[in-house]
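Q: For a teaching handout, I want to show students what a protein-ligand complex looks like in token form. Below are the inputs, and the small molecule is oxa(dethia)-CoA. Please produce the holo structure.
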Amino acid sequence: MTIRAVVAGVGSALPKRRVDNAELAAQIATTDEWIVERTGIRTRYIAGEGETTATLAAEAAQAALDHAGIAAAQVDLIILATATPDQTFPASATKVQTILGIPDCIAFDVAAVCSGFLYALSVADAMIRSGGANTALVIGAETFSRILDWEDRTTCVLFGDGAGAIVLRAEQDSDRGILATKLHADGRYNDLLYVDGGPSTTGTVGKLRMKGREVFRHAVTNLAAVLGEVLDAAGLTAADVDWVVPHQANARILDATAKKLGLSPDKIIVTVDRHANTSAASVPLAFDVAVKDGRIKRGDLVVLEAMGGGFTWGAAALRY
Ligand code: UT7
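A: Here is the structure, written as tokens, with oxa(dethia)-CoA included.
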């Protein structure tokens, strides 16, 4: 008898305000042409008053529960991947718990920046398979707009806010579910993508700083490698893959990674054009879009991947 963590439902949430490239070009020295050509980004969503990481996370989580047809009371584990929590502590996952009205469960945040959702998914999978949880909400949610330097054109045009969630359920002897996960970190690259503040250093929240060109170079190499590793671990090849749901940082990274693996661009889910880079939220947001528009169907072999600050990177293979 084997227990697998099966995806029972998916959901997402976006702030009300959508900001296009032209609106940014009216404020800083950039152009719609530069942003589209270098990144593929056309719009992003920016949180307004009353919209926080926890409120977006809870909205995405409720949508995922509704999609799964599962009541919030059945959830016994919430893992929220975020680098932009509502407060340094308590964990924003406990705020999600309160908003959803769950009286008792395990709830904590995971901080692995853009790879956070892959880290959270891997932890939830391990807890479910070991019998430590039965019904898990795995959420990626961010409000990066609040840690951007809006005068730095090299970073502020790249990011957006949002949340995505999945419900994982323990099932016995299912041919669906998470088949393999692979995670990596290499702290020698801390200074290529970081926030210049923190509770234990400056006592301030800080702003995002990135050496974009260097991150780009590492991203393509690391993502192609970890995708290969996770397929090997699941006993699969690129030819078995129905869909890749990648971290949405830059359309050119998605193209280059697909090319390196010999994957057709038609199999890559792309939402960076409308959401921009939403860090830990980007993979579950894109997953939700592709399930709801009918591309990803039950039984499809789906591979998720992400890379971000740390560096951290990871991938997961699952049968939806
Ligand atoms: O989510 C975590 C992972 N993050 C990533 O994967 C991000 C990876 N990096 C990237 O996506 C790309 O490197 C960027 C989109 C950040 C930058 O694209 P690039 O093709 O690497 O451009 P660059 O940084 O080499 O900059 C080229 C030029 C520079 O001007 P000079 O020095 O050539 O005169 C920049 O100053 O573009 C200029 N530039 C801009 N121009 C107009 C930078 N930002 C802007 C802007 N508008 N917003």
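A: Two things your students might notice: The mean pLDDT is 97. The two ends are 20 Å apart (CA to CA).
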